[in-house]
Structure formats: structure tokens, C-alpha cells
Fold each of these.
Amino acid sequence: MSCALLLLLMSLALAMGTGAAVEIQRPRGVPLSKRQFYEENKPFTCLDGSSTIPFDRINDDYCDCRDGSDEPGTAACPNGSFHCTNAGFRPAFIPSSRINDGICDCCDTTDEYNSGATCQNTCREMGRKERESLQIMAEITKEGFMLKQQLIHEAKRGQEDKQGKLTELQGSKKGLEEKVEALRTVKETAEDPEKEAKERHLKSWEEQKELIRMEKDKTRMAEAFLELDDDADGYVSVAELQSHLELDPDSDGSLTETETQGLLGGADKVDTSTFETVWSGIKDKYLSEGLSDPPAPVETPQEEETRDFVSDPDSDHYPEDYAGEEEDVEDDEEDDHEEEEEEKVPPTVQTPEKRADDEVSMPPYDTETQSLIDAAQKARDDFDEAERALREVDDQMKNLEKEIGFDFGPSAEFAYLYSQCYELSTSEYIYRLCPFNRVSQKPKFGGSETNLGLWGQWAGPEDSLYSVMKYDHGQGCWQGPNRSTTVKLTCGKETVVTSTSEPSRCEYLMEFTTPAVCQEPASLDEVLQGHTEL
Amino acid sequence: MMGPLLVLWLAVCLSGTWAVDRGNFKTCDQSAFCKRQRALKPGQSPYRALLETLELTNTKLTLQLINDNNKVRLLLELYRLQGNMTRVKINELKPLKPRFEVPDVLINDPPTEPLSLLSQDENGVVLSLGADSQRLIVSAKPFRLDIMEGREVLLSLNSRGLLAFEHLRIRKDTKVDPEGTENKEENEAANEPAEGEEKAKEDEKVEDGMWEETFKSHTDSKPNGPSSISLDFSLPGVENVYGIPEHADSLKLKTTDGGDPYRLFNLDVFQYEVFNPMALYGAIPVMLSHSAQRTMGIFWLNAAETWVDISSNTAGKTVFGQMLDYVQGSSETPQTDVRWISESGIIDVFIMLGPTPTDVFSQYASLTGTQAFPPLSALAYHQCRWNYNDQEDVAAVDQGFDDHDIPYDFIWLDIEHTDGKRYFTWDPHKFPQPKDMLQGLLDKRRKMVTIVDPHIKVDSSYKIHNEIRSKGFYVKSKDGGDYEGWCWPGNSGYPDFTNPEMRAWWASMFAYDQYEGSMENMYTWNDMNEPSVFNGPEVTMHKDALHGNWENRDLHNLYGFYVQRATAEGLIERSGGVERPFVLARAFFAGSQRYGAVWTGDNAAEWDHLKISIPMCLSLGLVGVSFCGADVGGFFKSPSTELLVRWYQTGAYQPFFRAHAHLDTPRREPWLFGPENTALIREAVRQRYALLPYWYQLFYHAHHSGQPVMRPLWVEYPQDTATFSMDDQFLLGRDLLVHPVTEEGARGLTAYLPGKGEVWFDVHTFQKHNGAQNLYIPVTISSIPVFQRGGSIIPRKARVRRSSSCMEHDPYTLFVALSPKRFAQGELYIDDGHTFNFDKHKQFIHRRLFFANNALSSRNLAPGSQFTTFSWIEKIVILGASKPSKATLKTPDGKESLLEFDFDASMSVLTLRKPGVNAGVDWTVVLQ
């Protein structure tokens, strides 16, 4: 009753507004707005001006105008269009190819005037339905829009909170930075004397070691001299030395007299004091007649590396362990297995052979040095602690900045979706939308979750950018693209995923209602009027 | 649809490559009989005609042949068939058991003409082949046949001595003494060597692959042993041979020396490659030969695996028998030699002697029938995809066409629409209300095709399976149980379509009360009917599977033919014989044209695949199958926008016009590529719809007389050697020449306009061009170069609507393209567009339109017919006209009226405004 009244009133209002009656004479298919171009019984000029034809050639089922304007009510022109008034509903233009094609396109049936199709006038019914749904929509919009205001308010407050927190963090960051700098100075100040004391200690130890080494060398030399001086005449002669093939300078397997002489500095024999110079030339090669093994080199350069390796076995020995999470269980097992095997391999140089030279270890630091070291260590610990605290603050700030920096819509009305997830259960899958994060799909009856896309960007058309979200770079498809999801947002009182589909392989479509996209409602009257013209 | 996606081995072999996996398919060398046969050397024929056995009756000549190596005798039957054809049949005289002879392909027992004996001596006989001074010469030793006209040899059989007939034999146990007397006696008894002849030389050494053959993991048990046959044909004076589809190769067949022969064996080839002789989905063992003098055809009626070797030389290789009392002409005569090899069956070959291309088409049509006359709507545009997901998706796509004002007639549902790949059912969630969906389409005068494949899910809760099993209708394995293989539904059975009872039952399943949810606007697609068996040898059925008494080996290439036939018969029956069916099939054989359309299978979105669609459909057209098309856009992969647009433009001028796409490709409905591309596609589709009256008329002719719809240029210009290998352009009927743009980034192309002294008119600009020239045409992305022959009249319907049914009553525009002699003629064919009434009740209009002496007239071509139409003549456009002072329309009631007209002097185009006369009556327009 009220609807009918409303309609009546509107009809009147519109009729009065345009100052024309519905029954006004004009050629079939011409909208009121173009009526003046079709003056009865006067030559008609095509709307594009291309030619002028007698009035009786309008709608005579032959196309005379290139723009199709002479046949608004027939299908004669390929590019024509037909206007249906659709009283009670919305007027519409249809391509003139739909005139008399046996299919009812206009709800007022005017497009099928000569095709034998029996069309029912459904305009009033459609108008009523549309108004009903518009009304419902309007209510939803109204409520949704109120909710949206709240969301905006909350987002604003949340934003302020975050901003405040950020400022706060910025403050404490500053303090922390200063602290770090101060502690760095303390640390560096403590490390200098430490370094000096340590170097001092080391140097004196090196000197001491050198003395010991020289002493030992002398002893060895004396022993060697005695050993070589077979005839105990106090001289080592060419003949006595010649039996030591290991000293052969050209390693050809024979130590000639000349070669031996060369070793002895050109002399035939040397005494103890001259042997000193000879000794320095042969000691590295010389094999004691009593020992079967050659003496180990004094210093093995490999040893340093070995120590590093042993002291830090995790650093880069098994880089494959860090290759990534994609490695499946089997691989991991294999790795474990390898590791075990490696461990079974006997350590080659892990425990260097004890040698007289190195047997003596460095003596402990003296108390003074030790206290310098302790002091420096404490300074280092304090510094590290402060640095860690600074990093934490940095991280917090970064997260906050990221959240603040997110495009949550013109008024941050979408902020409430951040770090939330919404699910929709279908017969086969549970779909999960975590706005600004990711979309996923999990089979209901077992099976692992599939990533349908990570947050990409707002992807609506220019005039409503925030009506569509795009998630991409999801899990790859066999022979196909990476999965991606388009989320269409519509106004609703509730925040809920209403449907999902896969229109194209691995390209998902999700419908999502949220108050955050509700537009400020026009008054109901405006809405209805906007859609109901005569 | 595509080949086996789900099978593991394919998944493995696919990773990282798009090309066909050749390793899955046999080469000649891997096919034991082909290898054996190809190893034979020419010039050593052991066959001799036993002239004393010659018998000549009213209808045929019979003659025994003997293989002098093993004394096995063959029986030769020679027939002179009406319409200038000769049939040569060779079988074993007394085979151990019957050998397979292909049934159901010939539409009748071809009527014969009498042969007469002209002369005979100990070297051979000469027979007269009726009129035209044609003679058939039978030479005795070695046996050969020569068909002559006057002093010219048209064709010779066994001239290279490659006739080879592996007789059926009893397996000799290899463990026993090879001279095993028992077996030998049996052999001799079976073969009955003629008395007095020297003892047969045992030339039957057992070779590998004679009694068992293994390919990859599959073993082919061969209980019947070797049974292959082979025969060679020499074609003097011939340099061009065509046909033997289906191959993704050039129109003009290549020589096969040094490579594999062309193979005919229906296979589901996953991601096939272009330009090679590998077998594909269908097989039509018909080859055409052509020279400027004559066109002929060879129809090798054999449904087993077949290989065709082609070689060509210009040396005077042909050595004529002693009977030939003349000296062969120039030894430089070009010659093509062809050799056919089949795994089993008999030699049954039809030699179609032409002499014109049209004659050969008629001759072949008289043997295997003509193209089914499709419902008019089937010639319109088809929208397909694997898959339209659900009813909502179908509704949305349907609406998308209306929203973008693009016409379409059919939307297709691929395998996913079924309930678990159980054909004849619907997925209950995605398609809960199929009739609502179909009604929605019907309301827009549109139609649907659903897929029904011939593999049946083995599932005891599936009615179709249970019935086939209980009726014993499945193909049997060699052990006698139901043959089972892997296909879309998983484990599947394969109904034995060679069994007429099975076919009748299958047909009955299409009744509206059997196929639930079906309606009269729903038609059928038979995919995978090679048949495709994912885990079978070469992705098809085991050759030792049994169809009744026959092995799949014997009739493999016929399976798909029968599937389409049974389905088409089902669609006819469901309407009580009233409505014409529409069935698309992927596999086919000779005669398949009688049952519907075929397409070129699972192509790819590549420019080469667009190009190859032309020779592939031309080749099919030459051998009877006019209703051919390729998946527009390409099935595998995703086309670039340019390729998609070009493919629509090309497809719009090919007979079967359907877009299709693989499940894994992004959506590609025409409006998804921006407004410019939507407009380009819309325009291409609209050109198709405007031309539907001409397409329909061409199909009427294909149905009526077997003339191909899409034709190579040489068919209409048989003496123009420049046209003989052209396959980047083609004719539709006689009157339209199409050279679609198939090059990426094309700025121009060169079209060849044939016909000295003829003219051609660009159908878009009406620009006139002379014939017999290579014409450079600059092109843009909107160009579809099409020319109308001067001298022709083509009817169009300019009012393109959203489906062809909506255009039924629309008026015609006639495009009259004048020849230099100011003459033109054409036709107009009209009927109800969908029933058999045109045939049964002569309800059609068929008119001749002709322009001569400045008058254009419409006259009835079929006085016995009766049909009324609402359609009228809206406009007449005369190309190459001069300006008249007046135009008068005369109707049979004696009335005369003046027509207004418009004359475009720059293009010489005269447009007559609104004659308004009904399209079904006599009328004349006189220009003064």
C-alpha cells in the first residue's frame, strides 16, 4: 500500500518535473531526451548529420543513417539502439539487434512488438523488487556506515596509540642510543689496556719460548755432532756426514763428496764451533740415527686452520643444514646420517702430536693483566646488553611503522582487519582470509594447507580502489601460474567471507563483506528516485 | 580436452617440456610389420597372375595370383564401379580363417558396370573400362595392373613389385624342428598349392615381432601371427598428392624417403608437434593425386594400423609390361610412387579416376556418403572451455556475451560437469538444476553441448556401467574378461561400439527420459574416442583386445567412427527422427562425415598451430570431412592477445568455429583483453554471423554432392600450378578467397588471387583486383583479408543478433560481384535450419540468383520443394557496377516498382535500396 502510494507520488513528481506525459507521440524506440530531433512529417537529418531523409523513412526497417539514428525502433541498423521506457522500473537502451528477436529484453515488452514472442510486462514487479532490495541495501548501508564510523574512530584511536607508542619508543631509543655510545666508549677504554697487557704477556712468553727453543737446538746440535763424529776425533768429516742421504741437496739418491763438502761449507771437516753454521743448514733435514721418524716441522701452518675448525664446528661445516625449510624429512635424515658418519671419521690433526716444542703452555696471566681483562669483559657485556635492548626497540618501532604505514583506507577504516583471520567452510575446503597478510585453503578431511596468495595491494577500479584486495605469489600450480586471490569487498554489517570460487585455474575469487566499505547512505528517497525514472 | 593428465608417467615426462614425447609413439622401425614390409626391396615381386583362373562375370573379374616363393594363392577381384571408379580387392584365396573386411563405411554395395575383355594372351589381358577409351591391363608375370586412358597410363599397381600379403599361418613352435612336418602339412593343406607345381619354397622364416611384439612396457600377443598387407601405386605425371589425414602437416604431402611414412592410427597424442607425419586422432585412408591434367583418388579401405610411403622421381622408372605396344614418352615425366602398408585385413582399394577434383569428390561421396547437414546454429560460434565450473559460471558467461554484444550459439561443458566423470550424469553440487540452466539458454535461443566420452567408469553404482556389463557390451581383453583401462574416471571399460546392438542401446541412452537433465537444445561431444587409454600401449587400446571375434588390431581406426555414429543416431532418435543431430568427435575414419563435426584435437596456443589449422582442415575437406575446425586460441598454453585475436579472425572463416582452452590456462572469454580487443573479436564473430547464409548453403552442397566447403585453391583452379602447394589461404566454396593473417606482428601479406581474366573484390572495401596476381595487402590488427570472386552472388544477413536462431526471419543482403563480362550468379538456400524436413518433405527454398544483361533475377532451382520464409531482400549491393538511370523491380504478379539506389563512383558500387521482395519468390531487377 505504502509502496504503491510512493510510486504514484514519484510518477507524479517525475511527470511534473519533466513537464511531459508518458503517452507523448514519438517514433518507436526514441528516448524523450531525443524527441525533438524527430519532428513529425518533417525531413529527418541523421543525428550524425550524414544525410537527410523523408520522415516516413524513420523506422521503415531499412537503415539509411550511418549512425543508425533513423531506425531507433527496428533492427535494421547494426549500430542502432532502442529505448525502452519501462514504466515502473528503470528505462533502458538495448542494442537494436534485440528488437523482435524473440527474446523479451524490455520489462515493458516494447522490444518485441512483431516477433510473436509473448512477453509479460514485469516492470512493476521488477521495480517493486528492486525497491525492496534497495531498501534492504539502504538499511544495511546505513547500519554499516555507522559501524564504519566506529571503526574509523577506533582506527584513529589505535593509530594514535600506536603513534604514541612509537613516539615513546623513539624517546627510549634515543636514550638507548646514547647509552650504547657511552658503553662503547667505556668498552673501548677498557679494551686498550687489556690489549696492551695481553700483548705484553704474550711477548714475554714468546721470548721465553725462543730461549727454550734455542737451548733445545743447541742440545740437539751437540747430540748430532757427537752422533756424526763417528771416530770421536772432535771433527765431523765429509765421510762421516755422507751416510746421511736425507741431506742430499738434489735428492738424486746419492750424496756425493762434493755435495757433502758443500754442506760443510767447503771444508773437509768441521769442528764443534764451525758445525754451528753447518747445523743451521742441515737441521731441518737431519735424521737422528737413533730415530726412524723425521722430526715434525717446527711450525705447521695448517694447525691454525685446524684449530679454527675444531673450535667452531657449526659455523660453516654443514651449510646444507641451513639450505631452507623446503628440504623434506628424508633429506634431513640423510643429513643427520652424514653427520654421524663424519663424526666417525678419526680426527686427523684434531689433537696435534705432542712435541717437545709445544709441550709448554703459556703461563696464566698475572693478576694485573687478569683484572684488566675482567674489566674489559664486563664493559663488553654491558655494551652488548645495551645494543640488544636498542635492537628490540628498533624492531618494535619497525613493526609499528609497518602497521602505521599500511594503507588501511582513506580513514584507516580497514585497520581493524589487521592481524585478524576469517574463515569460510565449503563442502571440501576451509578457506581462510587473513587481511593484509594471506589467503589459504585447507582440505576439510586431511591434507596440508595451500597458500592462495600473500597480500599484494588494493586493486579496485580507479573510482573505488578500496573495493578489491589482491593477494598473489601463492603456491605454484602444476604447469600454471602461482595461485592468487582477488577479494571483493561489499558493504555489510558483519565482517565475513561470503563465498569463494576459482573462476580460472589457480585464480581464486573471494567475496567479503565488511562495514568498512559502506558508503554514506543517501536518504532512501534519493536512492529510490535515482533508480526510478519514467 | 586433453590427453592423460593424471597419469604419473606423463607427469614425469612432461616436466619442463611442451613438446610431444615421441618416445611414447612408435616409429615404423618399432612397428614390427612396418619394419618387415619396408625392408622389402622393389622390383622383386614374387606374384604371378594365373590367367587360366580368370573369370569374367557381369559385375566383376576374378583372377588368382600366386606367390612363387611360397605358393600361397591370392584371389584378385576387379570391379568397374559406376561413376568412373575401379575397385581392386585382394584376399587370400583360402585364408586359414576369415580376414577382416571393413563394414559400415561404404553407404551401399557400390553399383558396378560391366567390364569387357579386349584381348588376352599368355602375358596378360586387356579389359575395357567402359567408355572414355579407358583400359585396364593385367600383366601376368610379375603381376601388375595398369589403368590407361588412350595412350596414357593413369595409374599402375604393383609396378614396383611391393605387393606383399602375409598369409595367415599356424604358429610353428620354435622349439621343434623348424622343418616340423606336421605343421608343414597343415600349411600345405591350407594353401592348396596347385597340382604339378614345384614344392613350395619355405620362405617363412620367423622374424621378431611376428608372433609377439613389445613396445615400452606393453606386450602385444599376436595369436594370429603376421597378417600385414602392402601394395604400391605409381602415378605417372603426378607431382602432387594430398589427403590421408590426420597429420599436422602441410597440405601437399611430402615424400617420406629417409624418414618415417605417414602413419594412420588413431591416437591421443599429448601436445602434438606440427609438421611431421606422426599419427593423430583420426585416420582417413584416402589420397588425392593432382596434376594440371587430372585429379584422381585412392581409397584404401582398411581400418588397421596403416603406413603410407610417398616417393617422387622424375626418372622413367615405370617399366611397362609386354602388353604395352607403345614406347613410353619422355623419361623426364614426373612420377609419384605411393605405397600402403596395413597390419591386417585385406587389400580393398577404390581408384577414383576423376578426372576433375569435383568428380573425385562426387566419386568418394558415392562410396562413403556426404557431410551431415548440420543444424544452422552449429555453423555459428561455439564457446568452450575446460571447464565452465557450475551453473552460475554458465549464466555469467552467457550474460557476458550479451553485455559485450558478441553473438554466440553454443556453450560447452567439458568433463568436469559430470558426477565423477560418469557420463550422462551431472555433478550434483555444481549442476544441480541442469534443466533450469538449459531453459535459461533456450530462453535466449541458445544451446549447449555436453561431453560424453566412450570410456565408462567401472563402478557398480553407475547405471550405465552396470547395464553395459550385464549386457556383455564391453570390449573384451584377450583373456575374455571385460577390457579395462585407465582414463579420466580412473578404471574404465570401453563399450564395443562395433556391435550394432551396443550402438542401439547407446543411442537409446540419449532419450530425454534416459539422459536426465537433457533437453532438446543440448547436443553432444565425443572426445577420447580413439579410444584413449592412458595406461595402454601408445595411450590407446591393446591391439589384442577383442571386439566380438575381431581384434582391435583389425578395426582400431573404426572405433571412433562408430562412437560418433551411435551418438548421432541417439540424438536423431530422441527427437523421433525429426531433428538433425550435432555431434563433435575427435577420432574419425572414412565415412565419419555422415555423423557430424571433427576438430583437430589438443593443439597449442602457438602461431604454428594457428597456421597448421588451415592445411589440417583443407586435407580433411578433400576427403569428405567438411565440418572441421581447430580450437580457437589454442588448447594448451595461453595465447598472447594478438594470437587470440588472429585466431578468432581465422576461425571465423573456418567451418567449425569454437574457442576452447585447457583447465590450467587463465580465462580467455572474448571480453577479458580490454575494449579494443573485445571489439576486434566481436567484429570477427559478427562477420561470421553475417555470412551464415553462405556457410549454410555451402554445407547444403557438401551434404548434397560431397563438395568440400573449405577448399584448396587448386580445386577451383586445377590448371594453375602456382596454387598446388598453397596452404596459407583457401576458398570457401568457389566464391570467397580467405587469406587470414597468421604471422605475428604482421604489417602486410601477399595473397594470391587466381584466375587469368578474373577479378576479385575485397569484401570490406569493395576494391577490385585482377586475378592471376600476387597481391600485397597491408594489414592492421583488424584486417581479415577476404575476397569475393567477380561473377558470384553471395547472400548475407547484415542484422547480426545474439544467436543465429534470432536471425532466422531476418532479411538478406545480396552481394553481387560482377565479372569483367558483367555477369554473376549465386544461390540462396533456406530451410527451417534444424530438422530433416528439407530432406523428408522437401521443405526448403533453393533459388538461383543471376545477373546478366543488366538484370538480376531469382529463379527456383527446386520446383518440387515447398517452404515459406518471412525473410525478404533488404538490400542489393552490386560490385563493379556502372551507374544506371533507373532500377525497376518486377515481381511475378506483374507489378513493377522503381527502386531507389545509391552509386559510389569511386568504387563502382551500386546499392539498391529495399527491394523488399520475399526471398522465396521469383523476381527481377532491371537496370537501365
Amino acid sequence: RALVKSPDQLELTEAELKKEFTRTLTTDNPHVPKNIVRYSFKEREYKLVDYMDQTAIHLSLNGNLIPKDSDEGRRQSIRSSIEGEKAPVETAAETSEEVEIKDEEHTGDTEAAGEGEGEGEGEGEGDEERKAPDEAPEVAAAAEAEEPPPPKVPEKKLANQFNFIERASMTPYNPLREKGCQSEPLPSKNFSANVNQWDIYDAYVEELQKMEKAKEKEKSKSQTVKKEEEKRGRRRLSTVELQHVEPISRISRAAKIAERMVNLNTFDDIAQDFKYFEDASDEFRGQQGTLLPLWHFQYENTKKLAITAISWNPKYTDLFAVGCGSYDFMKQGHGMVLLYSLKNPSFPEYIFNSNSGAMCLDFNSEHPCLMAVGFYDGNVAIYNLKKATSQPIYKSTAESGKHTGPVWQVKWQKDDMDNNSNFFSVSSDGRIVSWTLVKNELVHVDVIKLSREEGVQGPEELQLQTLGCGISFDFHKKIDYLFLVGTEEGKIYKCSKSYSKQFLDVFEAHHMAVDTISWNPYHLKVFISCSSDWTVKIWDHTIKTPMFVYDLNCAVGDVAWSPFSSTVFAAVSIDGKAHVFDLSINKYEPLCSQLVVTKKKNKTTHVQFNPVYPIIIVGDERGIITSLKLSPNLRKMPKEKKGQEVKKGPEVEMEKLEKLLSLVREPESK
Amino acid sequence: MEETEEEKKDEADYKGLHSFPLIRHSDMPEEMRIEAMELCVTACEKYATNNESAAKMIKETMDKKFGSSWHVVIGEGFGFEITHEVKNLLYMFFGGSLAVCVWKCS
């Protein structure tokens, strides 16, 4: 028993030799750490990893055997069968090549494996995890290495991971953008209607009537054109297109309204003044007042004509008529009668032309469309405004008793018992004639001849009756038969319709022609007269001498009472001034003397108050009518006493004037 | 008896007289209006007993000719309130008792 010991064997004692060492063999890999802690995101804390993979790989070797049934295996078998058909040399070469390939693969694999193994052993067996991904690309590379050879059959170029490059690229692409838009919705409108059987029937009946009317009117026009349009079914518009008269007349109304609107806009400030302006400075002016000029009415053709008469229409308070003619004996031409409306200052509403100058005019209060006009040649005519003609409907002629001198004034009377309208006229031939509209004619009756008291001694001692020339007259408001006539000699005759030969009374009124006479609208006894002898006189018809006399320093063309007060009247003088008097405020002086017409050589000829609005219109020699608004001072109403109601009405006016007159009257008379 | 005969005669007269197409309201341009009106007359005459078929024919033809979408109402007594595209409305009477309303609204 000789123990063979090697020379470098460890020398141990017998006790040490008998010592038993226990060695436990487990499957645990002693190199695997047992206390690895990993952060668990799920539980958000560090957790001890329980189990670690205990496998230790000592050797890894890639094989090159492919299962026969796999794709690659089948491909190879097909390839080998194809190659088997070719020359055996090639096959031998191929097989040798295959073998080479395989060897190379094998070597490649072993190298890889070796590498992998080397890696694994070098870094320790703890890195098994890294090995797994390492193996995968190696297997893939091997698989890829085998793929390229099959397509390149003739060349059999080797392609392995060392000379195979994958490259990829992508063409640039335009980024997408969204864009939207919406077109505007089509314009739409609502429409509603109701249809019933009777509605349809009515529409057809109406249409048929229109068609019949159109047929009658169109008989002169070509029938064929009309028939075509009938067939198409008429519409209202198409009927208008055929008839040329209708559209114009339809437009006229619209045009009129448009004209008024344009005028209102143009003269807007004047219209505002007319309606609303009250002169505030009147309070500081004491008793004086002013006249505010408003519109000027002018028509081209009347520039050379003087305004000879003004009259307001009793029904339409914005409509007034103006007569144009000439006062000059030598220059007598044509004449015109124009009707203006306050709503349209730029153009007259109605225009009537006449051969001789119109000297006077008057509206019939019962038939406001009838207007009587007296002419310079002695004729009288009646115009009807409702008819569209510009000719008078009735006219007097030499046979029917026209005057032999210019007709200075006409005045309508109440309809007589047969309901015929009649009017009076006074003229320079000294006759006062009453004209009656009987059926279609003007019938005249001489009412009075203005005979002078003193006759003229003619040859052979004949007394020749001469006739005075009547210039103006006025009828009493209440007493029908009573009227006053003013003559060129300055006398005023009080006459009655029933007595044709004699006068009731004579007033030696003025030294020159009495231009205007007017009864007071309220007081039954008072009248006013004005004359070219520069004076305006107020009378009580029972007393021979005037109550009030005003000297205006200039020939007075016209005088008019105001319709709202018994004590207010206006006068215009030839120098272009308008004077407004109020007897209850100032008995001796006008409250307002204002220059109305600015141009030289222009005389104001007539004045009239508007029955409703506080305005007066003044006519002059150039054919211009100026409208003026009375300031508040000029139209004062009596002041209210505390506790007492102010009575309004004609009685109050009468009392007012009576009071004034009683102051002036001599205590003897009355 | 005489009265009823007269009435019938009147009715026939009235139908005969009043059967021309009468346009009550339209804002279509002239050619479109004429075409639409003739189409309505044709349709109503063809489908005299069936308003629905007449309306269908009118609507489809108008859609083809003038674009979608058209609406057609035919009747003898109705009231309506519609919104229509401007210049695309026709409202007419025909045949003495029929009223046709054609309008476009998409």
C-alpha cells in the first residue's frame, strides 16, 4: 500500500485527512445575487425580486440543421432537385459549394457561438438575459444569409450579414392641411297666401274683365300681337305694358307725392318755422310784433305780371289762388290764374292762362272747386278745379253782358232758391252785375248802376247820368241784402240788393279811389276801407264819420281783417311794407311795420290772412307771393283774469270792438 | 230641372272660360316663368285626377332643369307660408279650380 504522491501534493496530517467536509449540491446558481431589488411601477415602490433565473449556460453552439418541412427546407429541396437535373459537374461543384457554404456557415455560426460563449464566460454567467437578444439577431442573420443565395442561382453570390446592407428611405410627403369654406346661402324670401275656390273664381272674373277692357282699348292696334299675349295668360304687368297712357297717370300721383316730399325737405326749416316757431323776443319788444318771412311762391311766366288778387280756398286751408295781370293801362297783356299750395312752394298746383289780365277772383264757399275770375277786358269766367281742363267752364261774352270796363271784384253769394250758384261783380263801367249759373250758361242781371249824384250838364241842357267806377265791394256777413261799394271817386255806397235805383247811404270816404272795403268778420256794424290817398279808415256803418283813421304815408294797396280777432287787421302799402294793427292793444299805431319786398320798384299789391294758420300772404308787382308768419304779439288773445274763464267766440270779439268803439264814438250819437 | 241644367251649363262655361292659366304671383325671370307655367299646365292636364302625380312630375322636371330642390303644391283650397329662394317662385291658378304653387328652397 504505497500511496503514490505527486511531488507537489499538499501535505496534510491524518486528522486533517479524516476530517469530513460536507458539501451540499443544490440547483441554485451560487453566482446569482439573491437580493436584487427592483422598482415596481405598478406598486410604486422598490420590491425584492423573488426569483432569479438560475440557469448558467456553459456552452452555446448554433446548429445548421433545418427541418425539412419548413419553408427554407422546402426551398432547398426544390433547389437541389432543380440543380440535380443539370450537369453532374455542376452538382458536384454545387454540393461542394454547398458544403463550403455550410462549412462557412458553420464556421460563421461557431464563430458567433464562440463569440457568444466567449462573451458569456467573460462577463460571467449572470448575464443570461443579454444572451437571449444576442441569439436572436444571430439566428436572423443566419436566416438572412441563406435567403439571398436562392434568387441568384447562376452566380450564387454569397450574401451574409457582412455584405448585406439594408437601407430604407422615404420620399418627403406634403403635410396635409384642412381647409373649409361655406358659400353664402342663397337669398330667400317668405311668401304666404290662402286659396279657396271662391278666391280662384274671383281672380278669374277680374282677369276676364281686364282682358275685355284691354280688348276694347286695343281694337285699333294689331290683333295678332294681342292674341299671342292672351294665350300666354295675362298678368297685370303685361296689361300695363300694352297701354301707354296708364303708366304715366299712375306715376303722376307718385310723382306728386315725391315732389311734395322733395319740397318739404328743401324747405324743411321754413316748414318747421311755420309750424312751431314762436318768436321769443316778442316778450321783450313790448307791444311790437314781427312778421317772419316764410315761403316765396313764384312762377316763371308771371315775372312780368303783378299779383292782382289773392284768395284762400275755404275748404283746403293750404291752397290759395292768385290772379296775375297788370294794373298799368298801357301795358295790358295776357293774364294767369295760379293756385298754389303751401305744401309745394316751388310750383303752382294749377295754372290757368287767359287772354287778358285777371283782376280778381273768389272761391265759392259751398262748392270749393268753383272759382270766379274777373278780367281786365270785362269778362267774367268760372273755373272748375276738379276738371282737368285749363279753360273756364263758363265764360261771359259780349252778348251775355260782360262789363265794358275791367272787373275789379267778384264775390260769390249763397246759392239761390233754385240751387244755382251766383256771384256779383263790380267794374269800372259802374254796373254791379249778378251772374247766375243756370244750366250751362251764365245769366246776368244788372243789380245796380252806380250813378253819380251830380249829373253833367250836356248840350241842350240835358242831364246826363254818369256812372261812377266801382272798384271794390263787400257783402255783409249776416244781412244778406246789404253790401258796400267803393268807387274810384272815393265814395262808399251802402246798397241793398233789393233796391236797384237808390243807395241806402253814401259815405264821403276818401279823396282817391277806394281800393278795398271789408266788413269786420265779427262785429256786424264795422267795416274798413283803404285808399290810394294814404289812409285806412274804420267805420261804423250807422255813422257817417270814420271811427279810426290811419295815415300810412304811402298809398295803401290792400287791407284785410284777421279771421281770429275782431281788432286785428293788416294793410300793405305801395312802398313794400306790411302793417299789422291791433286795436285792442294800440289804437293809433301799427304793432308791426315791416318791409316785405326788398327789391326796388316793387310794390306790394294785396294781402290776405289764412283762415286757419297765423300767416299772411302778400302779393307784389313782380308776380311773387311772400308768406309771413305773425309773431305772437300780433295775435294776442285777451289776458285771463284769475278766477274768470275767458270766453272765446265771436261774441267776445264783438264786445272787444264795441268797447273800443264806444270810447271813440261821440256821446251824442247812440 | 231647368235651373240645374242652367247651373251645369254655367259651370261648364265658367270652367271653359276660366281654365286659362292665371299667374297670381311670380318673381321668376320671364323665360323661366313661361316654361314653368307650361310645365304645370301639361302636368295638371295629364294627371287631372291625381294631384300627387302631377306634382311629382312638375317637381322632378324642375329639379332637372333648374337645379334642386323644388317643392310643388297642387290643390283646390289651402293656405301656406313658405320661404323661397328669390326669383324662384310661381303661384298660379289653372283649370278654374286648381291652384299650383312651385318654389325652390334647398
